[in-house]
């Protein structure tokens, strides 16, 4: 297949008329006409390529950008906090005190961080769809599609050496092959203390005005030397003025704008309530555990923050789906499409009803919600399945065990991150209790998992009995394959074996349902393309997207919300709240605060269309200069997962002037500053 070519003239003819600053646009189908007509700026292929190759995807689910020719990367502190936490110890808390590598030799190597930079995109829709034949059952169609995608990815990986992922777009209406340059030697360079980075904590999360220095710097290495990155974004201390056109290049995780009303109703009535129940349990338990001991608090800080963030985000999105006016708007928008493809909508509705019968078990057993979703059980399952999948043909393997994914799998499997068995036990006990609550203690699978014990006792037995925290043990089992796994009496390996057959069947059933929905969405996409042209943007898929907007405040009732905040506002907010957590500042900050210009802009808002995964995305101006760092959405913007509105919804960014001033006056990060600004 020929790769996409950027043909501005053709795109101008195909794109619909300009509208609000909506869209997470493919780099192969940028909003050329909209931006040209509304703002008088022409997006060129060269401008796009530079931005594309300056943009970085973080494996943990965030974004970033190169900001020097020597692999220096800017992202959010909250994107990097998991790595910062892994690099911390009881005696060296890098979240609490921050970190700065005064020399290149002091940069800290991350245990398991993978970064990806998009190099090329190819349309493989025709080849993928040709693999599915008329008359095939959903299972047969899913198997055929999985096999052809595996073949495409392996061919690309073997030919280029790049990570190669086939990305599903338009809910199955198109398939594109994304090739990434992969970096697995990544080192921490600078991070502010968490009090400054996450000022306001949970109370201010998803609010504006905000006062967060939510930034940190990493560096990509190759062959034990800083990577050469000729595509990088130039630093512009002055940032962007109110009303100025700005762009965001990042990796939004997932939106649901093109799903059907039936799918939104499933999220409203089942998916989100399930997730909130899980979050509330975990947050309460983790906070109680953290309050018992200072070391507990350090070990669980990242988990607590992530749980709180998820709670507020999902509650806001659920609130949107519970708004009858918004759901009526969705129903009205489907009317014409329903007339064009009534059978497709009916199949999706039937598939959603069918999924109700097994969805909870799928989440608990295959997704891993019953076992802490990660941690040592996840390691056990990876070892078991890696051994099982290795003997299968490439096209029949589960996606995560195919050859092109091996490097990522091994990076995670052999990570040197610290493992705390007391925290592992706590999480597993909570998850096993949740399993009992959802399936009932009399369920045969639940009884087999608990082995006649309570969740707390069983969790302690499993975690204390395992040796999978030892990298050497993991490596021996991985390299030994099926024979080593068969001989292992590790309790977590045994547990993974116990549930594997049922888990695989649930996954297969889920994939068959997804195939039914994907085929239906292809019909709907055909109707949509006939109506709008094929230049409409697809839902977010954690693939690189471009959005545009302007720096702009808004009105909330009678209150005018300004477009930016300052250091002065940060200190006023702290004093007004009595300087108690999370509105307090570190001793280091307070000692140097008088050196900061109080009118320095700190955070600002814009109409850029973003969602989760955009955290760490660069904000650039017409010249491609870096003028901001996305770190959040305000609360009205969270419903944009389903419906975009620029009335009050805003993207929230850190201003480069604040980053530069804090690094210079508070943290004295002179080496990095010189690299940024020269």
Automatic annotation (TrEMBL):
Keyword Protease: yes
Domain of life from the UniProt record: Bacteria
Keyword Signal on entry: yes
Catalytic activity, EC: 3.4.14.-
InterPro entries referenced in this protein's UniProt entry, alphabetically: Pep_S46 (IPR019500), Peptidase_S1_PA (IPR009003), Peptidase_S1_PA_chymotrypsin (IPR043504)
Gene3D superfamilies (UniProt xref): Trypsin-like serine proteases (2.40.10.10)
Signal peptide: 1-20
A Pfam family per the record: Peptidase_S46
Enzyme class, broadest EC rank: hydrolase
Keyword annotations from UniProtKB, A to Z: Aminopeptidase, Hydrolase, Protease, Serine protease, Signal
Role, per record: Catalyzes the removal of dipeptides from the N-terminus of oligopeptides.
Family: Belongs to the peptidase S46 family.
The protein's name: Dipeptidyl-peptidase
Protein species of origin: Luteolibacter soli
């Amino acid at each position: 297949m020929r790769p996409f070519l950027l043909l501005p003239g053709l795109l101008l003819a195909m794109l619909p008329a300009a509208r609000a600053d909506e869209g997470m646009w493919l780099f192969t189908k940028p909003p050329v006409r909209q931006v040209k007509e509304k703002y008088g700026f022409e997006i060129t292929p060269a401008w796009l390529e530079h931005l594309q190759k300056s943009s970085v995807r973080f494996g943990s689910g965030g974004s970033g950008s190169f900001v020097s020719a020597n692999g220096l990367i800017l992202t959010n502190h909250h994107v990097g906090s998991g790595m910062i936490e892994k690099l911390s110890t009881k005696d060296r808390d890098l979240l609490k005190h921050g970190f700065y590598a005064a020399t290149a030799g002091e940069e800290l190597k991350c245990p398991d961080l993978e970064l990806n930079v998009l190099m090329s995109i190819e349309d493989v829709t025709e080849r993928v769809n040709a693999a599915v034949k008329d008359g095939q059952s959903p299972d047969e169609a899913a198997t055929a599609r999985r096999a052809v995608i595996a073949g495409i990815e392996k061919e690309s990986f073997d030919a280029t050496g790049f990570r190669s992922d086939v990305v599903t777009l338009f809910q199955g209406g198109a398939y594109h092959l994304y090739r990434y340059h992969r970096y697995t030697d990544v080192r921490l360079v600078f991070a502010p203390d968490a009090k400054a980075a996450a000022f306001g904590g949970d109370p201010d999360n998803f609010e504006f005005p905000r006062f967060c220095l939510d930034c940190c710097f990493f560096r990509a290495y190759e062959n034990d030397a800083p990577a050469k990155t000729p595509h990088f974004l130039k630093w512009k201390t002055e940032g962007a003025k109110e009303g100025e056109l700005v762009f965001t290049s990042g990796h939004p995780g997932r939106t649901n704008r093109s799903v059907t009303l039936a799918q939104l109703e499933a999220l409203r009535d089942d998916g989100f309530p399930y997730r909130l129940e899980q979050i509330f349990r975990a947050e309460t338990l983790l906070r109680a555990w953290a309050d018992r001991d200072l070391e507990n608090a350090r070990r669980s800080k990242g988990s607590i923050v992530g749980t709180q963030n998820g709670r507020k985000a999902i509650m806001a999105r659920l609130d949107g789906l519970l708004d009858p006016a918004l759901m009526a708007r969705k129903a009205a928008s489907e009317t014409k499409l329903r007339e064009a493809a009534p059978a497709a909508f009916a199949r999706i509705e039937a598939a959603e009803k069918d999924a109700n019968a097994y969805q909870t078990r799928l989440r608990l057993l295959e997704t891993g919600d019953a076992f802490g979703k990660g941690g040592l059980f996840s390691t056990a399952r990876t070892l078991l399945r890696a051994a099982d999948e290795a003997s299968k043909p490439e096209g029949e393997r589960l996606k995560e065990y195919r050859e092109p994914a091996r490097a990522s799998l091994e990076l995670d499997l052999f990570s040197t991150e610290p493992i705390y068995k007391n925290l592992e036990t706590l999480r597993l006990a909570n998850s096993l209790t949740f399993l009992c609550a959802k399936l009932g203690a009399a369920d045969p699978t639940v009884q087999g998992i608990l082995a006649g014990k309570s969740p707390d006792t069983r969790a302690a037995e499993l975690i204390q009995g395992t040796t999978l925290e030892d990298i050497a043990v993991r490596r021996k089992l991985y390299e030994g394959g099926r024979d080593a796994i068969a001989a292992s009496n590790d309790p977590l390996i045994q547990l993974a074996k116990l549930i594997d057959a049922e888990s695989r069947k649930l996954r297969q059933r889920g994939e068959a349902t997804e195939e039914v929905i994907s085929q239906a969405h292809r019909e709907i996409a055909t109707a949509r393309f006939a109506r709008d042209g094929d230049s409409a943007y697809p839902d977010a898929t954690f693939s690189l997207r471009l959005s545009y907007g302007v720096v702009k405040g808004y009105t909330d009732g009678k209150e005018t919300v300004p477009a930016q905040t300052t250091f002065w506002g940060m200190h006023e907010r702290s004093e007004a709240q009595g300087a108690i957590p999370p509105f307090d500042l570190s001793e280091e900050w307070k000692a140097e605060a008088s050196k900061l210009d109080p009118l320095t802009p700190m955070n600002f808002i814009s109409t850029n269309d973003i969602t989760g995964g955009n955290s760490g995305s660069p904000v650039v101006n017409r010249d491609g200069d870096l003028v901001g760092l996305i770190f959040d959405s305000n609360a009205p913007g969270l419903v944009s997962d389903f419906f975009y509105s620029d009335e009050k919804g805003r993207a929230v960014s850190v201003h480069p002037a604040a980053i530069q001033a804090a690094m210079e006056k508070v943290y004295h990060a002179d080496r990095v500053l010189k690299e940024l600004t020269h």
